[in-house]
Write a structure and sequence with these properties.
This protein is 40% helix and 18% strand. With 288 residues, it is of the alpha/beta class. It folds into two domains: 7-208, Vaccinia Virus protein VP39 (Rossmann fold); 219-287, rRNA adenine dimethylase, C-terminal domain (Helicase, Ruva Protein, domain 3). α9 crosses α12. The termini are far apart.
Length: 288
């Protein structure tokens, strides 16, 4: 089977099937074997692993995953690519190709059915237009996960691992860091893809926490507070939460909680760490 990480082999498959890149699906196929090897190594893929791959495209990374993993499920939304995948992956008996939108799948059930409920690994070259919804769905639906190793837009990778006070820091940083430890393992230039994207990319590994790093009484309430804090980023936390739709938190309640935490009344949400958001959430919850 022709190795698709080699550009001329990718071109041959595209010509054979007369494939036109679907902008609506954010299709950019990897054509760099070094990057592919780096992704597999960073994800720590072994024969004991069940891998969920999202957006396999023509099967470039899927081939590498099949070589290294015990079982692979490749979920592809574009029905036109299913015959291509059946061809490019025909040499492998350890792969299941599913033509579906991953956001409509019950991934908890997939882990149960294919991996006896043990933690799975997600490895993907994610479509950039839908990166955040996919990652948040994986975490929030409490799929049993060991790690998520994904190619994303460089700017998004920077936001995922940003620290309080930086301009990249926001609701995504806090959400991801609540569920996982983050590490950018490779920066990937546009010339590693076909067609070339207009932005730089990065591979980020999210190693899921065995236990959440903070204790919070109501996870959903904390994330509503976080979102309200960053919806109007330049406003003080008091104003941001006071204007938060459906939050029902008064400026007075926020002021009292901030005083108890020893924080300034004019502090903005972008200065608070995950631990401080958890503490603020718990204090406001107690006052309800």
């Amino acid at each position: 089977m022709a190795e698709l990480g080699i550009p001329q082999n990718t071109i041959a498959v595209l010509k054979k099937y007369n494939i036109h890149f679907q902008k609506k699906f954010g299709q950019n196929f990897l054509i760099d074997t070094h990057v592919l090897e780096k992704i597999i190594a960073s994800a720590g893929v072994t024969k004991d692993d069940f891998i969920l791959e999202i957006g396999p495209g023509i099967g470039t990374m899927t081939q590498y995953l099949c070589e290294s993993a015990g079982k692979v499920m490749a979920v592809e939304i574009d029905g036109n690519l299913i015959p291509v995948l059946q061809d490019t992956l025909s040499a492998y008996s350890n792969v299941t190709v599913v033509n579906e939108d991953v956001l409509k799948l019950d991934m908890v059930q997939i882990a149960q059915e294919y991996n006896k409920g043990k933690p799975i690994k997600v490895v993907a070259n994610l479509p950039y237009y839908i990166t955040t919804p996919i990652i948040m769905e994986l975490f929030e639906s409490h799929v049993p996960l060991e790690s998520v190793t994904v190619m994303v837009q460089k700017e998004v990778a920077d936001r995922m691992q940003a620290a309080p006070g930086s301009k990249e820091y926001g609701a995504l940083s806090l959400a991801v860091q609540y569920y996982a430890r983050t590490e950018i393992v490779a920066n990937v230039p546009p010339n590693c893809f076909m067609p070339r994207p207009n932005v730089g990319s990065a591979v980020i590994r999210l190693t899921c926490h065995k236990e959440n790093p903070v204790k919070v009484a109501d996870e959903k309430f904390m994330f509503r507070i976080i979102r309200a804090s960053f919806n109007q980023r330049r406003k003080t936390l008091q104003n941001g939460l006071g204007n938060g739709a459906g939050l029902s938190v008064t400026k007075e309640e926020t002021a009292m909680a901030l005083e108890e935490m020893g924080l300034s009344q004019t502090i903005r949400g972008e200065r608070l760490s995950l631990e401080q958001f958890a503490q603020l959430s718990n204090l406001l919850q107690e006052r309800k």
